[in-house]
Amino acid sequence: MTITATTTPDTDTLTANKRLAVAFLDAISDGDVAALTAMITPTWTMEGGPPDLPAGQEGIRVLFAHIGGVEQRWTIDDVIAEGDKVVVRATNHCEQDSFFGVPGRGIVQVFTATFTMQIVDGLVARIWRNAADLQRLFQLGARILPPATMRPSMP
């Protein structure tokens, strides 16, 4: 673990950062790509999302192309801010055509996620996403099977 010394933002800055983080998730819920691209730095990145996501505005566009058809709503459970970071714990209710290739049309998925957002000069510079994606797959009926070599043979 790396601990770095930073200057402590004032209460107004922490409050503004919290509002930005919540607004970011609201814009995701609304599928508002234009609003999202206005809230990020040119070098924005996200860890814990689709692999090889480009930086900046192109990354937001690729993210939404990857998500595909979805109706979703994030409900904010907690927002905590310290230094240049805001942590948001949220619950998502969504219906998506498919998730990781598992069909999902007509199935409402409910899952939680934690987003740690680094805010720089009033914009989201980086997001670390940690979500219950395995929970979503199980809700869609996915099953984990052992490799064929470990399965009992059938008579």
From TrEMBL:
Gene3D superfamilies: 3.10.450.50. Residues 23-126 form the SnoaL-like domain. It holds the Pfam family SnoaL_2. InterPro entries: NTF2-like_dom_sf, SnoaL-like. It comes from the Bacteria. This is Nuclear transport factor 2 family protein.
